[in-house]
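This week, work through this protein record:
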Amino acid sequence: MSEFDSAGTLSKSRPKSLAAFLAAGQERARLWQPEELGAIFRHQMSAPILVDLSGLDPATAARLQTLSQAQSLLLKSFLDLFLHPVPPIELLTLSKDFAKGNMEQPDSSLPNEVAAVLYYVSIAAALVRLDRRISQLGDAELKRGLEWAKGKAWVEPRLQQLLGEALQKLAQASPDP
């Protein structure tokens, strides 16, 4: 028998400690402090789009490369994409889908909060820059998500502004009674 008996240790643990241990795997967001989320988000915004979205099928990956280099746009990063005055709608949709996929994967290396902000920023960029909706979310749910993302202190100020502009555009499109 080994010096450390993991089964014995777990059976002797207090129920609260054991419950917290088991819940840790279910709640990825709790594992990260705000400053860590900020560092991960900044890294994600500067990451080359072609690297993060390259796990797509070959046809989509080729289309992605063409789109990111088309008409001398030279969209190298997610931040470039979101701040571009006329970003390609297909790239915004791909980035939204990439974020959503990461949100739905419990074993994703991208924290859920970072993926969710990326998701809402993609939607905001399409709404503000192209006057297009790339989400099936209803107005109330979209508003809640945009406000939540805008409220994260670790989100880059220019993207917080973009999220605010999306909220204004949404309010103008469907004013409260």
Residues 1-13, 15-29 have pLDDT under 50 and may be disordered. The longest helix spans residues 112-130. The radius of gyration is 20 Å.
